[in-house]
Amino acid sequence: MSDGPVVSGQLKKFVFRGKSLNNGDTRGDYLEIVIPELLSAGYSFYTWPSAPLLAWYLWSQRKNLRGLRILELGCGTGLPGILAAKCGAHVTLTDSVALPRSLHHLSGCCEANGLIPGRDVQILGLAWGLFLADVHNLRPVDLILASDCFYEPSQFEEVLSTVAFLLDGTDSRFLCAYQERSTDWSIEALLQKWGLKGALLDLDSLSESSGIDYRALVGDRSLHLLEIVAV
Ligand SMILES: C[S@@+](CC[C@H](N)C(=O)[O-])C[C@H]1O[C@@H](n2cnc3c(N)ncnc32)[C@H](O)[C@@H]1O
């Protein structure tokens, strides 16, 4: 993973509107998030296709987000976490501690949406599978988020060990969006090893109940929403 030099930049706009699952009320429900993207050597400077999928799901649940303690792992430009913070959650955005330029860019993404790091959102360097003092201070957390953090099989266990530590002894959830890049890859054995269980969310049922066209968001990519809890 590189924190490499910038090649060129662009501003990406995400517009969220529509009814809430809770009461079907659409009035005043509109949110615009802008993400400054840098097309550089690093993965963390632009928004991957899983992130809008997770963000739209959170948007459908927005009436339930206020006051929740939410932690996003490997957040890159942080679209889902930024959305949650705009909806009233207490959000900590994290990315690899080894990528200071990425964390700095993440601060810029927050500021572009009127969120001041240290006041409206917290930003922290957190490497999956490393249990330094900071990680211990992150508990308790109500909801953990991640988008496109299962892209390198050698890191699957690092992600899940961090999640297992944070969920242990709680009824909190880990909600992640991921892109299936190979049907040979599986986290099933690791879920068992770390005392976790997962269930895919059914995008067709979600589309029906929310009015959000998840199939259009997924397009021709194999994107999934997975919810993981401690057993
Ligand atoms: C494919 S990108 C996804 C970024 C963002 N979540 C999105 O969907 O747009 C993977 C992210 O994981 C972060 N990452 C990679 N290895 C990591 C590690 N060992 N610990 C923490 N974060 C890591 C990268 O810096 C990058 O932001």
From TrEMBL:
One of its GO terms (biological process) is methylation. Transmembrane segments: none annotated. Keywords: Methyltransferase, S-adenosyl-L-methionine, Transferase. InterPro entries: Methyltransf_16, SAM-dependent_MTases_sf. Gene3D superfamilies: Vaccinia Virus protein VP39. GO terms for molecular function: methyltransferase activity. PANTHER family: HEPATOCELLULAR CARCINOMA-ASSOCIATED ANTIGEN, HISTONE-ARGININE METHYLTRANSFERASE METTL23. This is Methyltransferase-like protein 23.
